[in-house]
Request: fold
Amino acid sequence: MIWRIVQKELLSHLLTLRFALGGLCCLGLIASSAYVLTRQFEGRLEAHRSAVTDYEGRLQAVKVYSELGQAVRPEAHRPPGPLSILCGGVEGGLGDYVVFGHGYVPFEAASSGSDNPYLGIFSSVDFVAVFQVVLSLLALLFAYDAVSGEQEDGTLKLTLAGAVPRSSVLLGKYAGALLALSLPLLVSLGVGLLVATWSEYVSLSGSDWARVGSILVGSLFYLSLFYLAGLLCSCAFDRSASALALCLFAWVVAVLIYPGAVVFGVDRLGPAPSDQSVKEAARTFIQEIDKKTKAFLTSRGVSDRWQVWSGAAKSTSVRSEDSDSGTGETVKVTVASTKDPDLKLQRDHYRFMENLRVEIADQIWQLRRDYLEGGPLRQARLCRNLSRLSPAAVYGDLSAVLAGTDLGAHRRFLDQARAYRREVIQYFRDRDAFGSRAWFTDDRGKADVAGMPRFRWRPETAGEAVRRGWGDLAILVGWNGALFWVAYVLFAKRSVA
Amino acid sequence: MIWRIAQRELAGNLLTLRFPLAAGLIVGLFLVNTLVFVGTDYRERKAAYAKQVAQAQERLRRSASNLNKLAVEGPGMLYKRPSPLSFAAGGNEKALPIAVDASRRGGWGWADQKFSYNWTDPWALKYPYQSSRSNTLLRVFLEIDWAFIIGVVVSFVAVAFTYDAVCGEREAGTLRLTLSAPVPRDVVLLGKWIGAFLSVALPTVLGMALSLLIVLLSGQVELSAEEWARTGLIGMFSLVYVALFVSLGLFVSARCRRSATGLLTLLFIWVVFVVLVPNTLGSVAAGLAKIPSGKVFNQQVKLAVEERTRPGGLYDASPSEAQPKREALDRWARYLNDGVDIFSRMTDGHLDDQFRQVERARTLMRVSPVAVYQYVVEALAGTGFGRHRAFIEEARRYRDQISDFIKAADRRDPESPHIYLVKEGLSNRPVSVQEIPPFVDRVDLGGAVAQMALDAVILLTLCVLFFACAYFAFLRYDPR
Reply:
């Protein structure tokens, strides 16, 4: 019997104008946004590739190790993820490469492909945004008259006059509508992916397909939630017009207003504290480098830092940066004939100073990390938790996690970049690069940069992403269960006389 | 008769569930908007602006100790004043740059056995993209301001109030009864229009009035007569926008036989043109033309400035000699001025390219009434991209003004060689800070009206067009 009700429901939805309009709207928007987003992805990937090539070129030209302290600082590049076409998340706005040094721990990323920052005032629509808006509205339009409409038409009384349990009727309606809703979802997602994968730049791996599958599951739960919310309203009201009014207003609030209002409120009512105190503390730390280096040199009988080169160099060129990051300095020296051909003092000086710089950078990072955890990241977490009251926000967050474009993925990138910095420092230490002649001169051979480890972005596996998105999925499933139960109770108690 | 139909329509709307829902939502959002504005938002932005301007003044005072120092160092940072009407339209101000940098660009020296000169490249306008966003990890994609409340929420309410105005009455059979009486159809339509318009406009006007009342009582903002006039115009165009959607709703309702069809069609139009199109078209238009990235552009500028033609004999004599030769000063002035010209031409051109890209996107987005309405409100509130562009133009005018001032002040010193713009070629007398023309960042009503003229015309035209469509559709409507 349930199957018959499902068939009837499915057919009645498929033959309506709302299905045709909603489906076409969704398909058109997904196809057009797939084209636009794929073009954007191609541009970002091109920018990424050219940035990596450019960096490699600069790296090849490095002659002395100290250049890696400032002039050609090591970089870590993250390629754009193809699933950003499905759900852009925060990936585009937070940057895709970081620059660091042995004297600087990175905490933010820059964008290699942003040719016009003013375009940031426009937002873009991805697949998930279309599903969030169009299909959730369609789900409500399918549901608002499912019970009250049938009662107004008198067909509900006829249906229930037969020996059909109410639970079967409700389940049949739900299953039929969900099947009808999954059609535009599947077709438009399929067409969108076809448009995207048409591009030679987009290739999806097995893990990517698993993620697409997970997003699809999340989308079905999201649509089901809105259908059940509509069904609940339909069971709660006698008139379908009243159910529709409530559904539409609830939709506007839950989908269009609340998620954005939470971010707006948190941003405006409690702006993140300034990082000025971190910068000031960092400057004090950096002054320590000068002080301790001076003390080190005094213990070696040298009164002034620049006297290190006295008699040892024909010409020197030192480029240092006076900022709170204290990145490092580039020293290029043409060595003169000197009493000490091994340049022991000079090498000891740099070995001491650059190791100290690493330590100080790590200490500054501790301060910066505390600031980030207590300020900007806390705010971002607050926003996320508050916005979980809206199913649209939960669905958006879940999709971003699965697509690898959320804040968590960005932090993972920064963590990997910091780990990479440690690898580079280890590489330097293994070769005693800080205390080597090649730190400041190439008179006996260039610095060995070819063997320096290169950064490799390791994205989460699909399984890890699903584990991280589990909470959001559980919220969607929980909402589904609760709404179905309330709708069932209301329907079971409903008088159809 | 019109008034009686309007009253009936109004009463019909007021007694439905959708009215309290709509009124609660609209007024609630207006309250949220205003409380956030007066709570911290405007106060903090105003305090930050005052601090930045004070720092810039202090720097200017130091530069003014010597005219040639001022000529080389420039007037410093020029800040954009936060608009007191940003509660009406935030205009993404937090994502836009807050200042233009009018200070020196750096300096180099050259020394060999015969020649030694340390020079500083004189000031030029630079456009750093430094926004006032406190947390870049937050993706602020929505601002609860009047433009959003009216542009998105009120237009939705207008759709919800009008979708069944004609076809709903046909289904209920009351339209046939109404039209069987000797009432002309245009009177019926106008009555319905007034009734629906009042149903939507009432909570909107109430929300705006409450919002203004809170702003005034908070004491955070003192609006000038001109700002009141601009607020009045914002209110007026908000009502024109409401009228547009009421007319559209009546038109669609008069073209449909069933109210369900009317609702679907209107929701479809609303979702596409109000929610999705403004977001999609921005990125579409942005991708139509490519401009070099900031990194590449900076390299191009550096190369062009470094490789500019050096006048013959540039290194023959240094301007820093005790008695510098006039030819040396002339050569160096030409060399430095060329550098400023190349830098300014390229930097201005690059910014103009970026602006053109944004303008293209904005032009394309004008297919959406909500984008048109937003541009009108932003122009009147003195926020958004249009305002930022006007700020940049003002900064460029100021560049000419300050250059003229330096030349005029230099002419007054008989001991100066009057060679602009090499430090040693200009007067070294102090300048009174009061004499230096101040940078005045203001939004005047005339400029705002000129900026919004096109969008206001589009809004009014759409409103008249949809009403005419509704009128003709209703004249031909079969009430059976």
